[in-house]
Amino acid sequence: MRIVHISDCYPPRLGGIETQVRALAVRQAAAGHDVHVITATPGETIRNGTEILDGVTVHRTTFKLPADLPVHPRVTSVIGDLLKPGGAAADADAVHVHGGVVSPFAYPGMRVARKLGLPTVLTIHGVWGGVFQPTARLTEGLLKWAQWGVVLSAVSDAAADPMRSVVGAGVPVSLMPNGIDVDHWRVQPVAGDPNETRLIAVMRLAPRKRAMALVQMAHGASRMLPSGRRLRLTIVGSGPITAQVQRYVAKHGLTAGRFVVDLPGRLAPDQVKAALAASDAFVAPAKLESFGIAALEARTAGLPVLAYASTGIRTFVHHEVEGLLARDDRQMVDNICRIASDVALREAITAHNRSTEPAQSWPHVLETAEALYAEAAQQTARP
After folding, report:
1. Nearest-CA neighbor of 352 among 289, 284, 305, 283?
2. How far apart are the C-alpha atoms of 63 and 57, rounded to whole Å?
3. Which residue in 23, 11, 104, 24 sits closest to 60, CA to CA?
4. How far apart, in whole angstroms, are the C-alpha atoms of residue 144 and residue 138?
5. How many domains does the chain have?
6. Which residue from 202, 178, 198 is spatially nearest to 284, judged by alpha carbons?
7. Residue range of the domain that includes 308
8. The whole model's pTM is what?
9. Chain segment 327-336, per-residue pLDDT in tens
10. CA distance 41 to 15
11. Residues 139, 158: one domain?
12. Is 168 exposed, middle or buried (0-12, 13-18, 19+ CB in 10 A)?
């Protein structure tokens, strides 16, 4: 099968969408498919042209802008030249478009694919809530895409629900989750002090991820623990509010005592695995999380996950099964206290996570993608 992915961003740019698109493309190529990627992201040595990376044919078509924004003034023509008969990515059996809240390269590419009569799947990787949902209603973008015969999907229920509210019950929005290498993220747990509960978070220290809120919530929870119990919070990552978090830790003396905060900075993947192995539970404090790949990695490693029920994490974490879900910050504080003091509950969730493979394993994700491609082919064959 010839599969063509269209994505604004792709490695060497690092981020959630591009990392997952690359991982999907590489695994599809390893499964024997002829896989192409069309992107507006320049490569290490190529700005405009074709290269083969990890078995995937990558077509880069860029326009020089500040910060290499994925905007091209001739986006429809450059993508059309690649997809139309005789083009380098012609005769696609499936065109898989990957979009966020705003995707100035991918969304026009989707229209080009449908005008050429190619089976097309759209996966939304972001949450179209808040101010973005009225925008989608205003432009009727989703309705038009559905009318064109595009198969709609999203990485989680949190990302799919706003789409469903726009297109209505008559248009299905499927789940096309991000994938995870289960064997890679399995870890051998490292025992710690039985009187200390070790929480970990892996995130970019940016306001949207709510690292400061996490420290404050954990600090409050530590004061509610039974006598003799201690709490340690490790936040892996760096970003624009690192100094703010450091100042809070210093001001409140959180380097020793009943509540300790460790800030190791950004770690390599193997170091993250080691940090997960030496932890008892994972906390995801962001409320605007379309999927939560770091939380899925922790859940696969066996850790109970504490997160918000409004996020995409609820797709793979169910309350009191893979972790604890909170409605608001007050309940998150309660859940931190609960996971720290209820050893039986924590051990039961840990045992479940270590013994049960998540549905987001790559074999399942590849099957899901092929099912969506088959559905798109059926849509294209209809009058």
Report:
1. 305
2. 20
3. 11
4. 12
5. 2
6. 202
7. 182-355
8. 0.87
9. 999 999 999 9
10. 12
11. yes
12. exposed
